[in-house]
Amino acid sequence: xxxxxxxxxxxxxxxxxxxxxxxxxxRQAGRYLPEYRxxxxxxxxxxxxxxxxxxxxEVTIQPLERFxxxxxxxFSDILTIPDxxxxxxxxxxxxxxxxxRPVRSAADVERIGVPDPQNELRYVMDxxxxxxxxxxxxVPLIGFSGSPWTLATYMIEGxxxxxxxxxxxxxxxxxxxxxxxxxxxxxxxxTYLNAQIESGAQAxxxxxxxxxxxxxxxxxxxxxxxxERIVDGLKREADGRRVPVILFSKGAGQWxxxxxxxxxxxxxxxxxxxxxxxxxxxxDKVALQGNLDPCTLYASPDRxxxxxxxxxxxxxxxxxxVFNLGHGIHPDVNPEHAAAMVEAVHELSKPYHAxx
Amino acid sequence: xxxxxxxxxxxxxxxxxxxxxxxxxxRQAGRYLPEYRxxxxxxxxxxxxxxxxxxxxEVTIQPLERFxxxxxxxFSDILTIPDxxxxxxxxxxxxxxxxxRPVRSAADVERIGVPDPQNELRYVMDxxxxxxxxxxxxVPLIGFSGSPWTLATYMIEGxxxxxxxxxxxxxxxxxxxxxxxxxxxxxxxxTYLNAQIESGAQAxxxxxxxxxxxxxxxxxxxxxxxxERIVDGLKREADGRRVPVILFSKGAGQWxxxxxxxxxxxxxxxxxxxxxxxxxxxxDKVALQGNLDPCTLYASPDRxxxxxxxxxxxxxxxxxxVFNLGHGIHPDVNPEHAAAMVEAVHELSKPYHAxx
Lengths: 356, 356
What we know:
2 copies of one chain form a homodimer. The first copy, chain A, contains 15 helices and 11 strands.
């Protein structure tokens, strides 16, 4: 059995009764925190920080020391998998992540294998185990991965992109090759997330940052299908408890019903969809996570409180809601404003769970 | 009466019978055309090109010489209005448009007036009149403007932005000020578009590039409301013909029904929504313009043809569809691929209009 002192997050994901709406923030361990910036400076590069389990653990726990958050999330990057595949990840100032060897041809796809999480990704598993130990059951630990489509765009483009020229060209002209690549990435994600779960992750989240740049049909064929394969392939129990799986495609407000049919436990929802509409769309088959506009944290604490109230009201009564931002917290946000949000969620959500 | 030789575009916007689906491309006069790059080099800066009616006319007509497009669109920039308001527009390499004097305070908003289109924006009206003359009735000429919300974000941020930090902060903390600003911009857009119509524009389009970064409620309050005000304020007739108004909010697939209630004639639809769903949502109250994924033009001509067929089929039979990309054509697209798209639209659309 688990030693969890606060399992509100896990219960909400399974739509079991809770006393209040649990809350965490995407990128809660990040640049908006001065203590993060200090550890980051100590580590050297961003990837040095990811590859150092002690420092990754330190920054994972930092936001929990400041705010009464209901979950911790592994500090890492979605590009660890392509890096472990040998694509040569590096970061440039201003340009973001780059790969030395992008994937463009059939031979490139052929060369790619499924990385062994206990070998090339050992540093991630060590970080998960260490964080889990250091958390001491305070809150559950979320493991994560990028989605196959999202990872494939970085692998094909060789880094960040605005136009997705190469990935879309491959999708349109060489769908067979794209499917080969996505299949390999999906298998890698399954192995990777299962290893995180074995190492101590108590929930798993798949970030499909770029699913929303596809047409509805292409989304189903090139993104959703592979997330479904991941959901099917994951261990769903650890320590005698269910390990909930959360899928998050940014810009997917119109396809939440399809996503809810994958067998996942919860969906992340960005701020461009009302949770009331989202809840109707998924017919309470899954829990919903979100969805305060991350820019709300630029506003005054009073206004933040009002907007938190609005989001809570849009979900309405009953369990199945995990409060979060609709996207990662912006690096220039005042941490006091994040504190105001967390406090407001805990306070204002109680009436929605009264008498369960 | 008008001297139009090809009014298919105008008739489709009014859901009147047509023989084929008309087609044009957002940014059809642009960097993907070598002849555009030549004129641009001749002009000097991008704004020099916008401010020179002869050269603006030349680049407006260039794509019509290559492709049998069914509409021309004024070559200009959405930032002409804030520039005319005295904000000091300039362009930097790599960073895009910037304003010397961004709008941040109540005093800044106070200072702003409605520009006189026959004075500060005379160069736009001269370009419209010249293009209309040079077109000689080949196809209709579209005039355009940015939406108040979209223009306000540039004015407040002082240029392009990823996070909308200042605009969202003003929206949340000073909604009164934001509404003052949006009201002034909306009045300026009305005056500006009416002057374009008087100068010869035969349809008007409002580009709400950034409406999709808002929550549904904020979208209605801070973007849609002001587009509705514009629709109400526009001259809807010229040369004894109705002047159709098209609204386009990128990322607005979930709100098309609301947009259709503004009194506009047509809605632009990006590629993340199926036209069949969009058509159902707007209940055939308005025409729809779109929505090929602009990245499709990176694919082979054969594949482009198939995707054109898919978009035509998703709209289905009957008038009310103007074919377009779901967003502007990318600068690195091969013009031959644009030609393949235009040809496919004209050929493949005829069966959808048979026997009208």
